[in-house]
Amino acid sequence: MKKIVIVGGGAGGLALATQLGKKLGKSGKADVTLVDKNTNHLWKPLLHEIATGSLNDELDNVNYLVQAKNNYFSFKQGQLIDINREQKTIKLNNINDHQNQTIFPETVLNYDILVMAIGSTSNDFGTPGVKENCIFLDDQESAKKFRKSFLSTLFRISSGLDTKDKLNITIVGAGATGVEMTTELFKMVDTIGYYGFKKLSSELLNITIIEATDRILGALPENTAKDIHLKLEEFGAKILTKTKIVKADENHFYPEGQEPIPADIMLWTAGVKAPDFLKDIAALETNRANQLVVKSTLQTSRDEAIFAIGDCACCAKSGGGFTPATAQAAHQMAAICYKNIVALINNQPLKTFEYNNKGTIISLAHTAQGVITTIGEKQMGVKGWFASCIYTMLYRFHQISLFGIFKTLRLVSANRVYRSIRTKINME
Fold first, then answer.
1. What region, left, alpha or beta, does residue 119 occupy, with left being phi > 0 and alpha being psi -120 to 50 degrees?
2. CA atoms lying within 13 Å on the CB side of residue 79
3. Which domain holds residue 298?
4. Could you read off the pLDDT of 255-273 as tens digits, one per residue?
5. Read out DSSP for 39-98?
6. Quick check: helix, strand or coil at residue 405?
7. How far apart are CA 331 and CA 327, in angstroms?
8. Does the pTM exceed 0.85?
9. Is residue 313 a contact partner of residue 355, using CB atoms and an 8 Å limit?
10. Regarding beta strands 238-240 and 89-92, do their DSSP bridges make them parallel or antiparallel, or are they unpaired?
11. Would you say residue 352 lies in a domain?
């Protein structure tokens, strides 16, 4: 029986493990194991909603053990620290509890086929002071930590213990995460004020978005990005483009050739890279962002037994450029990787991956805006209620890939019931 090990339970990794479990694990054709350092999965594009409390992370979490049991694969908690390509093994570090006691020892797993789906982390580009002083929204724990810290600040202001008239929040990086986080912060403070907390409204916030390039949302058409730029200014955000940060300290960002920008809260959402430990791991080829270089079949360039998908994969597009590090791309890669692993086991030809950009929708608090790809690969601008529906449906399709349509509908119903009896945001 073939041993298939998938490292990373993100959007692509968990969908792949679920599909392979149903196809190969259930029939006994393969032993499928998913590895992740965490116990639960959350769709990464929703992290800004966890950070601002607008998403119920208890209902939207996917427990890896439950998903594995229901879909005929195994789950192993641990973090990859080494790959031995000659012996076809991977080593996982030990897992400690909150008291720093080891609960799972260092482990070695054998594989016949290995899939790297580790995802990405924020890229500080080596800027001095950023790692020490900025908040990164890399995972669920960092998002929750931000929410609790931000709520404490707001409650101190409401009770008079903190006498700030304005709360300066500076966000470096005007991609989807930075833009969505900005609008959710304004919405969050207004919502808390709605429940009777004095002095709390969106007027309290002084949010500055800093972008090194000449405009926000470089992945979107220029006209769409301009519309969203105007929308952000309507919310009350200040946007600085063509502004490169060269240093940060405890309460300031330092733009090149300009005066320091003060900040009570400093968020860094500029750029992504694969985790540092992937750099040249097991002598596999990597790029400057630590991504594993893959062929068109998604097999790594130096080892056909190892695949890479999602944010940690450097996959060239046939027309030039590279596949973007997005959840959309990760899902598409997982679908082709699934077909290629089945084909590899059955000694059949492998398929070529070709990224299909279906568009990008940006959530803007109570509304949304972006583009979708239509017939003929033309992009059509969408905004308002229609765009919000599409944005929500993207997540629902992800849930359907994990649970099927009927369980997903039950989750939607459960969320509606829960929202009817709880505060509009999570204030814990």
1. left
2. 10
3. 2-120+274-345
4. 999 999 999 999 999 988 9
5. SEE--GGGHHHHHTT-S-HHHH-EEHHHHHHHTT-EEEE--EEEEETTTTEEEE--EE-T
6. helix
7. 6
8. yes
9. no
10. unpaired
11. no
